[in-house]
Amino acid sequence: MSRGSVVVLGVDGYLGWATALHLSAHGHQVLGIDSLVRRRWDRECGTRSLIPIRSMPQRIKLWQKLTGRTIAWQRLDLCNAAAVTEMVRQVRPAALIHFAEQRSAPFSMIDRPHAVMTQVNNLVGTLNLLFALRDHAPNAHLIKLGTMGEYGTPNIDIEEGFLTISHNGRQDRLPFPMQPGSFYHLSKLHDSHNIQFAGRVWGLRATDLHQGVVYGSQTDEVAIHPGLATRFDYDAIWGTVLNRFCVQAALGLPLTVYGKGGQTRGFLDIRDTVACVRLALDNPPAQGEYRVFNQFTEQFSVKALAGKVREARAAHGLETEIVHLANPRVEREAHYYNAKHQKLLDLGLQPHLLGDTLIESVIELVQRYAGRVDPVELEQPNVDWRRGGTAGWTKPLPRPVVVMSGARRERRAAAAERLRAGIDQRR
Amino acid sequence: MSRGSVVVLGVDGYLGWATALHLSAHGHQVLGIDSLVRRRWDRECGTRSLIPIRSMPQRIKLWQKLTGRTIAWQRLDLCNAAAVTEMVRQVRPAALIHFAEQRSAPFSMIDRPHAVMTQVNNLVGTLNLLFALRDHAPNAHLIKLGTMGEYGTPNIDIEEGFLTISHNGRQDRLPFPMQPGSFYHLSKLHDSHNIQFAGRVWGLRATDLHQGVVYGSQTDEVAIHPGLATRFDYDAIWGTVLNRFCVQAALGLPLTVYGKGGQTRGFLDIRDTVACVRLALDNPPAQGEYRVFNQFTEQFSVKALAGKVREARAAHGLETEIVHLANPRVEREAHYYNAKHQKLLDLGLQPHLLGDTLIESVIELVQRYAGRVDPVELEQPNVDWRRGGTAGWTKPLPRPVVVMSGARRERRAAAAERLRAGIDQRR
């Protein structure tokens, strides 16, 4: 079966890599693109994937060896307009899956340079892509990773992108009013508006996937071989909350809930992420259409999520403590939340709902790599929405998140000591 | 009376300069800031203000000589974060009026570099300012020039920034859904979201003035002396529509309406712009509050506006032709439009409504400078929303808006010839 080629932008990331494998496994001709900047940001933050990941050439070579399928690979920064234009002109892709953005809310809140970099990086990359599509692939389907965080937490039901509003006896279907909660989330909203506009004036077609918080790491394809692993982040900058809880549970540490924990969000299994992208790809919108899918399967409060992890552990006779930390974010900690997520179900999504089995399997995976856990990363969130980011929550510094230094190594050793002592006490 | 100092950002522009004079005349201690980039963009586009304007030092010196009042002046680019931070740290202003953005929709639609530059310039400048305020002047009142164009043309009444929405039996007051119509208008919307967020997390206070289309050039202060003139643009890139119609009428040329002319927008006299800014300044929002004022006094369709100019001329026995050009923009040409603009009236705004006298006075002003009119600029719009900008509406070029070249000078001479012939015929 010959299909047009699909470009996965941000292929070196947590979801980009898993998506590329999934689409390749389903017969799509995939070109993976990445600037590899995420690995540089790891070095800046002193963070790393819990699960070791191979280099792009190694991963692709292994995929080919194991499956006979080829994923093309090109190192390219979306902010390099000439290179983006040339890539689109040469490839003329049928579709592009766009993960290639700075995707951490805390990273964007560290300080001014990180906020500016996040918004400029994300907006310029997407604008470069939109112009390249206008000029060289106007029929291509742009599948853009947005976030449920664009909506914020309104006191009304959240619809999928648009809302029919009646006001003073008149009616219109309008973009859903948005209230994002970080400079990162704002960058995704800015993108959404730019993409919607490009659809209107240039007739481009796009699917904006407003994705919830992803957990897990094992898709069917990733699970084939350890060398195909995708990254797994658990630290306070890059980790998503359930993955962090699983790491804490695996080490017998308390689960750390920010504030009251009533913050409710949409969640989904990484296996559903890759399936959703494929469903969007296989069911493209009309030319000129801008559509939004809310991409998650269940909603939980953070507190309820911690409770689920505790229950899964209790089934094995293990006790798990839940502690509440001062909330580093500015957000409602108790609020109404009811977000629709029907469109992907209508296209055939079969959700993997969160159960004890998944939680256990993630915890087992973590235990396999427990020696790689950096205990400093589990102590406290290190970026505060009001004051910015410093390792110690003290006064703002020019470059608060620091590359591993001697001092940091000492703190790390001390934290490891405390961690071991804590684990001993709990056992 | 001692008041805290007020920083006018973008003081070299059409409205920035008039506002600085107005606030200075009303006893405010004003610091004017500008990068002077607008004068560079004029050189790039081959455009210029119809009314000659003096350099910043000359204008300020003249203002002091005529009134005894001092306006401080500093050349500074808002995209220079260190300089912005240092300025805010040293001045600790009571308020800042932020005009310092790329403010032309056609300029932003020329090509990718102009779109990217517009969004990056506007967002980064505003982000730099927000962080500087957080760190060094958290009580300052930020008065930001936004645009009515953020709303687009919804089929419901436009409220001032927020809308109470009932949906599935629940209710919330949410940001009004926005549908901007150019990369420039989008940049203003992105700013609005960033500023609103900064209010929520850092407790900053801001007034977002969603301004309509401004016309006229003579405020009480500008009118004191020709050397105090503010710029007056009539070309297709920088000119606002009524000012352009007045130039066309003054030269006996047809008024050029884009498309059907049913496009309806809010309009206001430049004297009301400066009054609105002063009213916002004198009535600051609470700490942490983000508020929106719709800043215009009347709404007209472009067609109706052309009709008003024609009527004003007819009163003097002069005939004015109205021609419809293919619309270079992508916008609804017949639509519902009813935008609220009550809040500034409630604060005491006394509107200068559009009458024949104003139109006549603008036309008289234009006639004084008729020799400076560049006829090429009145021929055709030179930026198309679908294809981007070229002088000749042909295929996209790398740098479509060109600095005056030999070829352009020849075209200009030929156009001047046609113009003279046309004027002769009409007289």
In summary, what is this structure?
The structure is a homodimer of 427-residue chains. Chain A has 427 residues and is α/β, with parallel strands linked by helices.
Structure description:
The structure is a homodimer of 427-residue chains. Chain A is built from 14 helices and 16 strands. With 427 residues, the first copy, chain A, is α/β, with parallel strands linked by helices. The first copy, chain A, has two domains: 6-228 and 272-295, Rossmann fold (3-Layer(aba) Sandwich), CATH 3.40.50.720; 241-263 and 300-426, Alpha-Beta Complex (UDP-galactose 4-epimerase, domain 1). The first copy, chain A, has a seven-stranded parallel β-sheet, with helices on both faces. Chain A has a three-stranded mixed β-sheet with strand order 9-11-13. Chain A has a two-stranded antiparallel ribbon with strand order 6-7. In chain A, helix 1 (14-25) packs across helix 9 and helix 8 runs parallel beside helix 10 (302-314). Chain A is globular, with a radius of gyration of 21 Å. Mean pLDDT of chain A is 91; it is low at 391-407 and 422-427. The interface between A and B is large, with 52 and 52 residues.
